[in-house]
Amino acid sequence: MKLQSLFTLATAAMMLAACNRQPAEPTFTVAHQDDGLTIVNVTGESRYLLLPIEEDKGEVQVRVNTGDAADTWMDVRLAVDTVDYYVPLALPAGPKACVEVRNLPADALAWSRLQLSDTFDTTNREYYRPAYHFTPAYGWMNDPNGMTWKDGEYHLFFQYNPYGSKWGNMHWGHAVSPDMVHWTQLPPAIVRDTLGHIFSGSSIVKGDTIFSYYTSASDKYGQIQAGAWSTDNGRTYTKFADNPRITPADGRRDFRDPKLFAYDGHYYAIISADNEMQFFRSDNLHDWTYVSAFGDGYGVQPRQFECPDFFELPVEGTNLKKYVMIVNVNPGCWFGGSAGEYFVGDFDGTTFKCDSRKEMVKWLDWGKDHYAAVTFSNEPKGRIVSIPWMSNWQYANDLPTRQYRSQMGMPRQLFAYKQGTEIYVGQKPVDEILAQVKPAEFTTEGNTIKLGEGKAQLVIDMDVKNGSTFSLTNGEGEEVFFACKAGRLIMDRSRSGIIPNDAFAPETYDPKPSMGTTSGTWIPVEQLCGKKNTYHVQLWMDICSIEMYVDGGRATMTNLVFPKTPYNALTGSGLSNVKVCSVEL
Ligand code: FRU
Q1: 235: left (phi over 0), alpha (psi -120 to 50) or beta
Q2: Residue nearest to atom 6 of ligand 1 (CA)
Q3: Domain check: are 509 and 408 in the same one?
Q4: Which CATH number does the domain housing residue 191 bear?
Q5: Could you give the CA distance from residue 372 to residue 257 in angstroms, rounded to a whole number?
Q6: How many Å lie between the centroid of ligand 1 and the Cα of residue 244?
Q7: Is the CB of 274 under 6 A from ligand 1?
Q8: Is the pLDDT of residue 124 over 90?
Q9: Are residues 189 and 290 in the same domain?
């Protein structure tokens, strides 16, 4: 044998040996059992098993089996015929992992489409993803939860399904921000467990610890209140070993969404219980005593109360301070579906007394896409700041996105003001978002303000004459129609673009053909802002939403819209002092 071929052989042998030392590519086997269970055995280390999802298929159950009693089944719409998108299932570290799947037939497409991967691509794929409203990178989101501030960070936890973009598997998702505008999403903070879904709840900061309470919800145990704490700023939580901490005394089914607050040296939790709100008191955030209830016969009745909040606000222009109870109701919104109402009154540590007559209904926002709004605790400037979920249970699961579904509304600073004999709550964009607003170019031609092409993150600021009508339009023939007439300010989105389902812009509740529309949502501007010749209106637009603030936020209206291209013109009579700005993060 020649020297050169000997050398070549030796090199080849060395290379082969080096290759053999590389960890083997992870692989998996799939074994279907007769009892409907399928076992996926993974050999080799991989961060994720990527699960193929088909949204309109039913849920099957998936569990990572580590042998721990805490291993929890998740409901996942695994692909049967086609793959809409993937979601990552995190695998435990180590050379072997076992994933179990229940109820997925052996001929389902998912079996040939499962993938192992160390990465998951969250690059945005959605045309309608907003620019300055919070959305999760992927997965489903509903209510904001547990919002608080600590050590320079605002925490937004939220109802989150990491295993698909429809409601299910409630976890507390988590995002942090220095200013409530620029958010960084972190891994879920509190994960669905064997006590149930992690439903909505709240947080309170005590010393170095964030205490959070949420509702554990399951068919087996019902709706019960559980607690958890974090000493690393919400990155990891320890659940109380003796959860649940509060259970419904009367065995009622709907008992959820605890909101914590402090009053006179005690902690309180306010919990929605059918169509009333119940107060509980504690001195240690662990043991709770029932105190009282409020709500029977008040506001929109009889409706399921959800997601309470409770805080004190000074009343502008007076020496008064008043307690405000936020009560989200679903259904019950005058325009269909879900909405938030509130009651103003006094609290003495035992009972809440509402100032208004029982039938008085005060909506926090007069659109269809403002729900489950709750406020931050421990806000460093002492402000009461809320964030609403910007959707409605009537169509939330049908919105035209897939990578993620749902967005939050802008953070809003709440204030109380007196109009006539009533005290109302208004809301205005927080200063931090105002700091992102820059003048934008626009031109005026007759009655039309040309907003420019392709600009979807605009703020239009103007005076609107009582009696006028105006529209936002685009080159696709799509239109959002507004009218300020007969004491109302109306927004009609029935021709605004994609209409996700019949409940989105129905022929409606209170048709007034003289308004130029039979559909829409309306603000009673005269009642809330007084009878005036002009109202000051701001429209905050962000790709697929319009938030309207009237007279400095005394009245607001929040609605989603899905135009094919951004609205590029505002046309109407009776508009003056128009300014156009853009929101630039
Ligand atoms: C409100 C709500 C809450 C519940 C959560 C479940 O939107 O129904 O009452 O905790 O959503 O995701």
Answers
A1: alpha
A2: 199
A3: no
A4: 2.115.10.20
A5: 10
A6: 18
A7: no
A8: yes
A9: yes
User: What confidence tens digit (pLDDT) does each residue in 373-399 have?
Assistant: 999 999 999 999 999 999 999 999 999
Tens of pLDDT, residue by residue over 210-226, are 999 999 999 999 999 99
214 lines ligand 1 (CB under 6 A): no
* Residue carrying structure tokens 């927004």: 491
Considering the domain boundaries, does residue 63 fall inside one? Answer: yes
Strands (E), 420-564: 422-429, 437-439, 443-445, 448-450, 458-465, 469-473, 479-485, 488-495, 521-523, 534-541, 545-550, 555-560
Are 164 and 304 in a shared domain?
yes
We report the CATH number of the domain holding residue 513 as 2.60.120.560
- Which two structure tokens, joined as six digits, stand for 400? 């035209």
> Beta-strand (E) ranges in 364-457?
371-375, 385-389, 404-405, 412-419, 422-429, 437-439, 443-445, 448-450
Single-letter residue type at 153: E
Quote the ligand 1 centre to 170 CA distance (angstroms).
Answer: 9
pLDDT band at 15 (very low <50, low <70, confident <90, very high): very low
pTM, rounded to two decimals: 0.95
Residues forming beta bridges with residue 398, ordered by sequence position: none
Probe target for ligand 1 pocket from 170, 192, 213, 306, with the most ligand atoms within 8 Å of CB: 306
The closest alpha carbon to 203, from 145, 273, 267, belongs to 145
Residue 32 phi/psi, 5° resolution?
Answer: -90, 130
Nearest residue by C-alpha to atom 9 in ligand 1 = 306
What's the CA-to-centroid distance between 306 and ligand 1, angstroms?
A: 7
Structure tokens at 340: 């938030």
Position in ligand 1 atom list of the atom nearest CA 159: 12
pLDDT tens profile 519-545: 899 999 999 999 999 999 999 999 999
